[in-house]
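Hi R.,

Here's the chain you asked about this morning:
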Amino acid sequence: MDFNRGDSIWELMLVQRPSDTHLSQSSTPGGKSPLARDDDNMLVTQAVLFAGNKAVLGILGAGVLVGAAAVKAAPHVKRGLISLRPKLSRQAEEPVDVEAPVPLTVVAEVGPEQPDAPRLRAV
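And the predicted structure, written out as tokens:
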């Protein structure tokens, strides 16, 4: 896929480079250079560029297949969900066996007895 835009040609490419490298920054803002560098920014090798036409066709083909499968499966999924609804509502209506709750008794802790504080008398 080539796009001729003014004095430049834009081409879709796939890039292959070693996994422990990154592409160099280009002098063009936002662009990358095909030079593969390591984490210390040392030149390791050049990246290999492949035409991206087949990749685009593969992605589009996979999208079409997934879409067709979804359209084909939708009525079956819908029928399954519709038949599941009455089963779920029946289960919700059935009484559930639950043991009677046991009442809880609260016991307050009592500390040791304190002697009464001295009382003041009015004179």
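The two ends are 110 Å apart (CA to CA).

Let me know if you need anything else.
M.
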